[in-house]
Write a structure and sequence with these properties.
With 398 residues, this protein is of the alpha+beta class. The chain has three domains: 66 residues, no CATH class; 156 residues, no CATH class; 119 residues, Glucose Oxidase, domain 1, CATH 3.50.30.10. Helices cover 28% and strands 20% of the residues. The strands form three sheets. Strands 1, 2, 3, 4, 5, 6 and 7 form a seven-stranded mixed β-sheet that branches. Helix 2 packs across helix 5. The longest helix has 13 residues. The chain is globular and about 75 Å long. The chain starts with 9 loop residues before the first helix and ends in a 9-residue tail after the last strand.
C-alpha cells in the first residue's frame, strides 16, 4: 500500500514534474533493454513455447553460414516442434572492421550486449550500450536477428522495433548477409518508420502482415493469467497502467511495465522487445485480430485469460478465482512479489498537503509526501492545487 488516496488531480501534475527527473524516454528504454530484462528471463531450456537450446556447439559465432545445418547449430527456437516454430539467431556487424559479421551462437548468448562484451566489440553496458547501438547514426555495431519464417518459406533479417537504423544501414546489412549467408534473405520491418525508410531500397522486403496473412490468432507466449482487461486505443504517457491489468492494444509499444497479460490487435514479431519481456514475465501474450473491438465491452472487468498454441480462452474471474489468483498466476500475484512499505497506523487524522512533509511518507504514502514537499518549497514556475491525503490506517477497513 505504497500510495495514499489523494482526493485531488495533483497526481498528473506530479507525474509531469517528475517525468523529466525520471528521464522517461531514452533512459527507460535503455533500462528495459539492459538491466530491466535481467529480471525473470525466459529459460532457454523450457519447451512450453519458449526458446529451446540444444547447445550443440561451443563456438561463440560463425563468420559465415554455408548451410541450414550451420544455421540450426547456432539458432534457438520458440515453440519448437509445433507449426509455430520460429528458429532464429542474432547477428552483429562490426562496421569498423570492414563490415565483419558475427553470426552469434544464440543458444550461448541471450542478448547482443552479452556477446559484444564477451568479444570485446564493446565494453559498454546499459544506457551507454543502448545509445551506441540503437540510436547512434554513426554507430560502430549493427545488431539484429535472422529468422526462418515458415508461413512464407523465407529467411528474414530484422531489427528491434525501436532501433533508429538508417536506410544506409539496412542496405549495408543486406549486402553483408547476402555475401555470407547460404540462402536468399529479405528484410522484415518491425515499425512504421522502418517500413517507410525501406520502401525505396532495392532489397526484398517481407512485412509482418504478409507473414501472418489471414491469421486471426498467434500465441506470442503460452501462459495463464488473471487480471482486469484494459482496452487502450492509443497508448501515450497519459494512460495509467497497473500491474494487475491485461492490456488490449492496437499495436505493440516500445516498452511496458510488468503487467498481467498482453493482447495486440495487429500482427507483430514474436521477437519484439515487448514479446521477449512477456516471456520473461511468464504472462499470456497473443495477437488476436480486431482485439480492441472484441474486448471493448469487457473493459475494466476481471477475467481469467489463457493462451495456448492454437487458441485462447477466457472466463469471468469470480470470487473463487480472485481468492486463488496467486496460485493461477504466481509470477504476478505470488506472495513474494510485493512487500508493503513501513506504515504508521497510529495517525487517524486526514491532512492537507501544505502540512505533509517527506517524513510523513509512512503515514500518507510517498506521492503525498512528495507533493507536500513541493508545496512547502513554494515553486514560482507552477502551482500545486490544494488537496488532502488519507492515512494508511483506513485502508484495511476499506
Amino acid at each position: 500500500m505504497e500510495i495514499s488516496l489523494l482526493m485531488i488531480r495533483s497526481f498528473k501534475s506530479m507525474d509531469r514534474i517528475f517525468a523529466s527527473v525520471a528521464l522517461f524516454g531514452t533512459l527507460v528504454l535503455a533500462t528495459t533493454l539492459a538491466t530491466g530484462q535481467m529480471a525473470r528471463k525466459p529459460s532457454p531450456s523450457r519447451s512450453d513455447g519458449r526458446a529451446v537450446s540444444t547447445d550443440n556447439t561451443s563456438q561463440r559465432f560463425l563468420p559465415e553460414l554455408h548451410s541450414r545445418e550451420d544455421f540450426d547449430q547456432l539458432a534457438r527456437i520458440y515453440n519448437a516442434k509445433t507449426p509455430y516454430a520460429l528458429p532464429h539467431l542474432m547477428f552483429v556487424i562490426d562496421r569498423r572492421d570492414k563490415d565483419k559479421i558475427y553470426y552469434v551462437n544464440s543458444q550461448m548468448f541471450r542478448f547482443h550486449q552479452d556477446f559484444a562484451n564477451a568479444e570485446y566489440l564493446s565494453l559498454k553496458r546499459g544506457e551507454d550500450f543502448f545509445r551506441d547501438v540503437y540510436t547512434n547514426d554513426r554507430r560502430r555495431l549493427i545488431v539484429g536477428t535472422i529468422a526462418w519464417q515458415e508461413p512464407v518459406q523465407k529467411y528474414t533479417f530484422e531489427y528491434w522495433e525501436g532501433d533508429l537504423v538508417t536506410p544506409e544501414m539496412i542496405s549495408e546489412t543486406y549486402s553483408t548477409i547476402k555475401n555470407t549467408f547460404f540462402a536468399d534473405i529479405a528484410f522484415k520491418p518491425n515499425s512504421t518508420r522502418q517500413e517507410d525508410i525501406s520502401a525505396k531500397l532495392k532489397i526484398p522486403v517481407v512485412t509482418p502482415a504478409e507473414i501472418q496473412k489471414n491469421q486471426e490468432y498467434l500465441a506470442l507466449n503460452v501462459a495463464k493469467g488473471v487480471g482486469r482487461f484494459h482496452v487502450i486505443d492509443k497508448l501515450d504517457d497519459t494512460v495509467e497502467i497497473g500491474y494487475n491489468e491485461i492490456l488490449v492494444l492496437k499495436e505493440v509499444p516500445l516498452d511496458l511495465p510488468p503487467v498481467a497479460g498482453i493482447i495486440v490487435s495487429q500482427p507483430t514479431s514474436p521477437l519484439s522487445h515487448i514479446n521477449l519481456l512477456a516471456k520473461g514475465w511468464n504472462i499470456p501474450n497473443a495477437y488476436i485480430k480486431n482485439a480492441n473491438d472484441l474486448f471493448r465491452k469487457m473493459d475494466g472487468t476481471w477475467f481469467e485469460f489463457e493462451t495456448t498454441l492454437t487458441d485462447y480462452k477466457f472466463s469471468p474471474c469470480t470470487k473463487e478465482c480472485l481468492d486463488t489468483k496467486a496460485q493461477i498466476a504466481p509470477a504476478i500475484y505470488g506472495t513474494d512479489q510485493f512487500k508493503s512499505p513501513p506504515s504508521d497506523l497510529k495517525v487517524t487524522a486526514l491532512s492537507t498537503l501544505n502540512v505533509i512533509r517527506q517524513k510523513d511518507s509512512n503515514i500518507f504514502g510517498s506521492k503525498a509526501a512528495n507533493l507536500g514537499e513541493i508545496v512547502h518549497s513554494r515553486p514560482q514556475a507552477f502551482s500545486v492545487p490544494p488537496g488532502f491525503a488519507i492515512p494508511f490506517v483506513y485502508y484495511p477497513s476499506s
